[in-house]
Design goal:
- Helix 5 crosses helix 6.
- This protein is about 50% helix and about 5% strand.
- The protein folds into two domains: about 55 residues, 3-Layer(aba) Sandwich (Rossmann fold), CATH 3.40.50; about 90 residues, DsrC protein, C-terminal domain (Arc Repressor Mutant, subunit A).
- It is globular and about 50 Å long.
């Protein structure tokens, strides 16, 4: 706990200031309820780690604050657990979306919108919603190690 201001408020201030909005924020906290995590991520946190946590978690979490070049399949699998994917198991349909997002980023330096993704991969919007219960940006894009800025 911070003495004067809580971490959520710090996150909000940093992410709403053009001078600091690009700085990755990882929130280590004892508040581990789903509503706490969602609030932190909605306010702009790049990752949310509940205490106590194992130092070995850093191996997979490093990509959440690094460049998309640091992404790997271990990171995607680890994030799948956080993103309400049943048992954290990514199916071939998940990987199809993830690969498309990563290839689009590498080629165009941009994340395609949900409709472009569905059209390019031949996956219906309803199926995409089923594959990524947390949503397109908080699910698929985040598991792919990317962010929309």
């Amino acid at each position: 706990m911070l003495p004067e201001i809580d971490g959520l408020e710090v996150c909000k201030i940093l992410k709403h200031d053009d001078r600091t909005a690009h700085i990755p924020i990882v929130m280590p906290t004892v508040k581990g309820e789903e509503t706490d995590i969602v609030t932190g991520l909605e306010l702009g946190a790049d990752d949310y780690i509940t205490k106590p946590f194992s130092p070995s978690c850093g191996r997979w979490r490093r990509s959440s604050t690094g460049s998309s070049d640091e992404w790997d399949e271990y990171y995607a699998t680890f994030r799948a657990y956080d993103m309400k994917i049943p048992e954290g198991k990514l199916t071939e349909e998940h990987w199809k979306i993830i690969r498309f997002l990563r290839e689009s980023w590498e080629k165009n330096n941009t994340v395609p919108n949900v409709y472009e993704t569905c059209e390019a991969t031949g996956i219906q919007l309803e199926e995409l919603e089923h594959l990524f219960p947390d949503g397109y940006h908080r699910g698929a894009v985040k598991i792919a190690g990317l962010k929309v800025r």
